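Researcher: We're teaching a course module on how sequence relates to structure. For the next exercise, students receive a sequence and then see the predicted structure as C-alpha coordinates, so they can try to spot secondary structure elements on their own. Here is the exercise chain.
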Amino acid sequence: MNAPANIEQIEWRRSPELVDYPTAVAEMERRVAAIRDGTAPEMVWLLEHPPLYTAGTSAKAGDLLLPERLPVFTSGRGGEYTYHGPGQRVAYVMLDLKARGGDVRAHVRGLEQWIIDTLSEFGLTGERRSSRVGVWVRRPDGGEDKVAAIGVRVRKWVTYHGISINVAPDLSHYQGIVPCGIAGHGVTSLAKLGVGASLADVDAALKRTFKGAFKRSA
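Model: And here is the predicted structure for the students to work with:
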Protein backbone atom coordinates (compact mmCIF):
# COMPACT_ATOMS: atom_id res chain seq x y z
CA MET A 1 0.00 0.00 0.00
CA ASN A 2 1.33 3.44 -0.92
CA ALA A 3 2.48 5.77 1.82
CA PRO A 4 0.58 9.06 2.25
CA ALA A 5 1.72 11.64 -0.29
CA ASN A 6 3.80 14.54 0.95
CA ILE A 7 2.89 17.81 -0.70
CA GLU A 8 6.33 19.23 0.11
CA GLN A 9 8.02 16.68 -2.18
CA ILE A 10 6.17 17.60 -5.36
CA GLU A 11 8.41 18.79 -8.18
CA TRP A 12 7.48 22.13 -9.77
CA ARG A 13 8.60 22.60 -13.37
CA ARG A 14 8.17 25.74 -15.47
CA SER A 15 8.86 25.77 -19.21
CA PRO A 16 9.72 29.27 -20.47
CA GLU A 17 9.29 28.30 -24.12
CA LEU A 18 6.08 27.27 -25.90
CA VAL A 19 5.60 23.48 -25.70
CA ASP A 20 3.79 21.77 -28.55
CA TYR A 21 0.88 19.59 -27.53
CA PRO A 22 2.13 16.12 -28.60
CA THR A 23 5.44 16.74 -26.82
CA ALA A 24 3.61 17.72 -23.63
CA VAL A 25 1.37 14.65 -23.72
CA ALA A 26 4.32 12.31 -24.30
CA GLU A 27 6.22 13.90 -21.41
CA MET A 28 3.21 13.61 -19.11
CA GLU A 29 2.72 9.96 -19.99
CA ARG A 30 6.38 9.21 -19.22
CA ARG A 31 6.10 10.98 -15.89
CA VAL A 32 2.84 9.24 -14.99
CA ALA A 33 4.49 5.85 -15.58
CA ALA A 34 7.47 6.86 -13.44
CA ILE A 35 5.24 8.09 -10.60
CA ARG A 36 3.28 4.84 -10.75
CA ASP A 37 6.54 2.85 -10.61
CA GLY A 38 7.90 4.93 -7.75
CA THR A 39 10.90 6.22 -9.71
CA ALA A 40 9.91 9.89 -9.87
CA PRO A 41 8.06 12.32 -7.59
CA GLU A 42 4.69 13.87 -8.31
CA MET A 43 4.88 16.97 -10.45
CA VAL A 44 3.14 20.22 -11.37
CA TRP A 45 4.23 21.45 -14.80
CA LEU A 46 3.58 25.09 -15.74
CA LEU A 47 3.70 25.90 -19.44
CA GLU A 48 2.18 27.60 -22.48
CA HIS A 49 1.19 26.01 -25.77
CA PRO A 50 1.26 27.57 -29.23
CA PRO A 51 -2.25 28.43 -30.47
CA LEU A 52 -4.27 25.21 -30.86
CA TYR A 53 -7.52 23.44 -30.08
CA THR A 54 -7.82 20.16 -28.20
CA ALA A 55 -10.76 17.78 -28.36
CA GLY A 56 -11.47 15.89 -25.15
CA THR A 57 -13.18 12.52 -24.90
CA SER A 58 -16.68 14.10 -24.97
CA ALA A 59 -16.03 16.52 -27.86
CA LYS A 60 -18.83 16.89 -30.42
CA ALA A 61 -17.88 17.48 -34.05
CA GLY A 62 -20.38 20.32 -34.38
CA ASP A 63 -18.63 22.30 -31.64
CA LEU A 64 -15.58 22.81 -33.85
CA LEU A 65 -16.88 25.87 -35.67
CA LEU A 66 -13.75 26.90 -37.62
CA PRO A 67 -11.68 23.74 -38.18
CA GLU A 68 -9.17 25.53 -40.44
CA ARG A 69 -8.39 28.29 -37.95
CA LEU A 70 -5.88 26.42 -35.76
CA PRO A 71 -4.36 22.94 -35.43
CA VAL A 72 -6.67 20.49 -33.66
CA PHE A 73 -5.39 17.68 -31.44
CA THR A 74 -7.37 14.76 -30.06
CA SER A 75 -6.81 14.52 -26.32
CA GLY A 76 -7.40 11.71 -23.85
CA ARG A 77 -8.51 14.14 -21.15
CA GLY A 78 -12.12 14.47 -20.12
CA GLY A 79 -14.23 17.27 -21.51
CA GLU A 80 -14.89 18.77 -24.93
CA TYR A 81 -13.15 21.36 -27.11
CA THR A 82 -10.88 23.96 -25.58
CA TYR A 83 -8.31 26.48 -26.72
CA HIS A 84 -4.70 26.77 -25.59
CA GLY A 85 -2.25 29.48 -26.56
CA PRO A 86 0.29 32.09 -25.45
CA GLY A 87 -0.82 34.16 -22.48
CA GLN A 88 -2.70 31.25 -20.97
CA ARG A 89 -1.19 29.46 -18.00
CA VAL A 90 -1.53 25.71 -18.36
CA ALA A 91 -0.78 23.67 -15.24
CA TYR A 92 -0.48 19.93 -15.73
CA VAL A 93 -0.89 18.13 -12.42
CA MET A 94 0.53 14.63 -11.96
CA LEU A 95 -0.46 13.23 -8.58
CA ASP A 96 -0.68 9.75 -7.08
CA LEU A 97 -4.33 9.40 -6.12
CA LYS A 98 -3.74 6.12 -4.27
CA ALA A 99 -1.70 8.13 -1.78
CA ARG A 100 -4.40 10.81 -1.64
CA GLY A 101 -7.51 8.84 -0.83
CA GLY A 102 -8.28 7.44 -4.28
CA ASP A 103 -11.07 9.93 -4.96
CA VAL A 104 -11.18 11.34 -8.50
CA ARG A 105 -14.05 13.70 -7.69
CA ALA A 106 -12.11 15.10 -4.75
CA HIS A 107 -9.17 15.69 -7.09
CA VAL A 108 -11.36 17.69 -9.48
CA ARG A 109 -12.75 19.67 -6.56
CA GLY A 110 -9.20 20.35 -5.48
CA LEU A 111 -8.33 21.68 -8.93
CA GLU A 112 -11.39 23.94 -8.83
CA GLN A 113 -10.49 25.22 -5.37
CA TRP A 114 -6.91 25.81 -6.46
CA ILE A 115 -8.10 28.05 -9.28
CA ILE A 116 -10.56 29.88 -7.02
CA ASP A 117 -7.89 30.49 -4.38
CA THR A 118 -5.44 31.69 -7.03
CA LEU A 119 -7.96 34.14 -8.51
CA SER A 120 -8.66 35.50 -5.03
CA GLU A 121 -5.01 36.55 -4.78
CA PHE A 122 -5.80 39.07 -7.54
CA GLY A 123 -9.07 40.27 -6.04
CA LEU A 124 -11.28 38.11 -8.28
CA THR A 125 -14.13 35.88 -7.14
CA GLY A 126 -14.15 32.60 -9.02
CA GLU A 127 -17.19 30.37 -8.71
CA ARG A 128 -18.19 26.79 -9.46
CA ARG A 129 -21.32 25.88 -11.40
CA SER A 130 -22.79 22.41 -10.90
CA SER A 131 -24.02 22.24 -14.50
CA ARG A 132 -20.90 23.76 -16.11
CA VAL A 133 -17.28 22.72 -15.81
CA GLY A 134 -14.51 25.18 -15.11
CA VAL A 135 -14.38 28.30 -12.97
CA TRP A 136 -16.57 31.31 -13.67
CA VAL A 137 -16.68 35.03 -12.84
CA ARG A 138 -19.71 37.31 -12.80
CA ARG A 139 -19.97 40.36 -15.03
CA PRO A 140 -21.46 43.65 -13.77
CA ASP A 141 -24.47 43.04 -16.05
CA GLY A 142 -25.21 39.75 -14.26
CA GLY A 143 -23.81 37.47 -16.95
CA GLU A 144 -21.04 34.97 -16.38
CA ASP A 145 -17.78 34.31 -18.21
CA LYS A 146 -15.43 31.38 -17.98
CA VAL A 147 -11.91 32.27 -16.89
CA ALA A 148 -10.41 28.81 -16.32
CA ALA A 149 -10.88 25.30 -17.70
CA ILE A 150 -10.34 21.85 -16.19
CA GLY A 151 -9.64 18.57 -17.98
CA VAL A 152 -8.38 15.45 -16.23
CA ARG A 153 -7.21 11.97 -17.10
CA VAL A 154 -6.29 9.24 -14.63
CA ARG A 155 -4.12 6.24 -15.49
CA LYS A 156 -3.68 3.54 -12.87
CA TRP A 157 -4.55 6.10 -10.18
CA VAL A 158 -2.06 8.73 -11.35
CA THR A 159 -3.57 11.98 -12.62
CA TYR A 160 -2.47 14.08 -15.54
CA HIS A 161 -3.63 16.98 -17.72
CA GLY A 162 -5.08 19.60 -15.34
CA ILE A 163 -6.10 23.25 -15.62
CA SER A 164 -5.72 26.36 -17.75
CA ILE A 165 -6.18 29.95 -16.57
CA ASN A 166 -6.65 32.76 -19.07
CA VAL A 167 -4.12 35.37 -18.03
CA ALA A 168 -3.80 37.46 -21.23
CA PRO A 169 -4.41 35.20 -24.25
CA ASP A 170 -5.93 36.13 -27.61
CA LEU A 171 -9.58 35.52 -26.72
CA SER A 172 -10.66 35.81 -30.37
CA HIS A 173 -9.47 32.23 -30.94
CA TYR A 174 -12.38 30.98 -28.83
CA GLN A 175 -14.62 31.97 -31.75
CA GLY A 176 -13.47 28.81 -33.52
CA ILE A 177 -15.10 26.46 -31.01
CA VAL A 178 -17.95 26.11 -28.57
CA PRO A 179 -15.70 26.13 -25.48
CA CYS A 180 -16.24 22.98 -23.42
CA GLY A 181 -19.54 22.50 -25.27
CA ILE A 182 -21.12 25.40 -23.37
CA ALA A 183 -22.96 27.91 -25.55
CA GLY A 184 -24.55 31.14 -24.36
CA HIS A 185 -21.72 32.21 -22.07
CA GLY A 186 -18.56 34.17 -22.69
CA VAL A 187 -14.87 33.57 -22.05
CA THR A 188 -12.71 36.10 -20.24
CA SER A 189 -9.19 36.60 -18.91
CA LEU A 190 -7.44 38.34 -16.06
CA ALA A 191 -6.36 41.05 -18.50
CA LYS A 192 -9.92 41.62 -19.71
CA LEU A 193 -11.03 41.83 -16.07
CA GLY A 194 -8.53 44.62 -15.48
CA VAL A 195 -5.90 42.54 -13.69
CA GLY A 196 -2.42 43.32 -15.01
CA ALA A 197 -0.83 40.12 -13.72
CA SER A 198 2.01 38.43 -15.57
CA LEU A 199 2.39 34.69 -15.99
CA ALA A 200 5.12 34.84 -13.33
CA ASP A 201 2.67 36.53 -10.94
CA VAL A 202 0.11 33.79 -11.57
CA ASP A 203 2.74 31.08 -11.16
CA ALA A 204 3.70 32.47 -7.76
CA ALA A 205 0.04 32.54 -6.70
CA LEU A 206 -0.51 28.98 -7.93
CA LYS A 207 2.40 27.79 -5.84
CA ARG A 208 1.23 29.67 -2.75
CA THR A 209 -2.32 28.32 -2.93
CA PHE A 210 -1.58 24.74 -3.97
CA LYS A 211 -1.03 23.40 -0.46
CA GLY A 212 -4.44 24.51 0.75
CA ALA A 213 -6.23 22.78 -2.12
CA PHE A 214 -4.20 19.56 -2.07
CA LYS A 215 -3.50 18.72 1.54
CA ARG A 216 -1.58 15.67 2.61
CA SER A 217 -3.78 12.57 2.55
CA ALA A 218 -4.79 11.16 5.90
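Model: If you want an answer key for the exercise: The CA atoms of residues 67 and 176 lie 7 Å apart. The longest helix spans residues 21-37.
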